[in-house]
Amino acid sequence: MPDLRTWFVVVAVAIILLAVAGFALLSSAPTLTVSEKDDRMRPAIGESATDFAIDTSWLDTPKRNAIVAFMPKGTKTPLAGRAVAVAGDRVSIENWKCHVNGTATESRRRMSVSAAPPTKVPRGCVYILFDKGTGPDSAQVGPIPLWRVLGSVN
User: Fold this and answer.
1) What are phi and psi of 148, to 5 degrees?
2) Domain residue ranges of the chain, discontinuous segments joined by +
3) What pLDDT is recorded for position 149?
4) Would you say the pTM of this structure is higher than 0.70?
């Protein structure tokens, strides 16, 4: 039977190896893969690009009009969308277009309704829209909590 000193060395080495492996996993930059057929955010993300690095520092100070990766509720696959509004902004739909603080967004998408009353984006949330097409963005589900956002797409 090994002595106490041998067990201590084995356990210490195992802890160091687990710490190094954990650090490597945490420090690796997350990525987003977008199907070539998914055109909701093209040409903003590029016509043929499929893999993108995600900058998690965007979550520290979210800014409008950034292309972000987010996890829609009920899915396991992240999607890319445009953060058109941040906490405190007022979002409304007028004449089939989304307006943020009274100004029309860059989205090329025609909204699914012609008008909707203003909504204030709550703290800890962003309002994400696809540039075109439909899907589980804020037009469908409302403001998206920041904990569902992975970061900005580079």
Assistant:
1) -90, -5
2) 30-153
3) 95
4) yes
